[in-house]
Design brief:
With 152 residues, this protein is mostly beta strands. The chain is built from 1 helix and 11 strands; from the N terminus they run αβββββββββββ. The chain has one helix at 2-18, and strands at residues 41-47, 50-55, 63-68, 74-79, 86-92, 95-100, 105-110, 116-121, 130-132, 137-140, 146-149. The strands form 3 sheets. Strands 1-2-3-4 form a 4-stranded antiparallel beta sheet, with no helix packed on it. Strand 6 (95-100) and strand 7 form a beta hairpin. It is globular and about 50 Å long. Mean pLDDT is 86; it is low at 1-12.
Length: 152
Amino acid sequence: MTQNFIFSVFFFCLLSFSNAEITHYKYRIVGEYHHDTYASTQGLAVEGNILYEGTGGWNGASGIKRVDLHTGRVLKRTIMSSWTLGAGITIWQDKIIQLTQNKNEGYVYNKVTLDLLQTFYFTNNQGWGLTNNGQFLIMSDGTDKLYFWDNN
């Protein structure tokens, strides 16, 4: 009896959602670019013809690369320590900001040279995604929360 009731409720739910409008979006590919297939991309930002890629992985696989978007040639690379897991990145003015997933640290780099300018610390769970809206840095820690940080 219980199984029949559960099946009936499930079937009713399916029927009630079957009439819902589904929006279908169309797209077209406007370009394809070279990419390192061994990179474990954790953060990605594009500015002009430059691709900034934050990678995550152990034993020196985490870091940031500055890449010519059209050729895929790495223009500059910074590698993190082997026990640091790199995560999201964003472009902020003339800097690149990168989170770590495992150390509650973030790094501020010079956008052109990728020299490390500053280390900062955060108290959220883990650093995952990072973006900005021009006014605030916006961080995700892999949960249902977004954190808005001022630029200080």
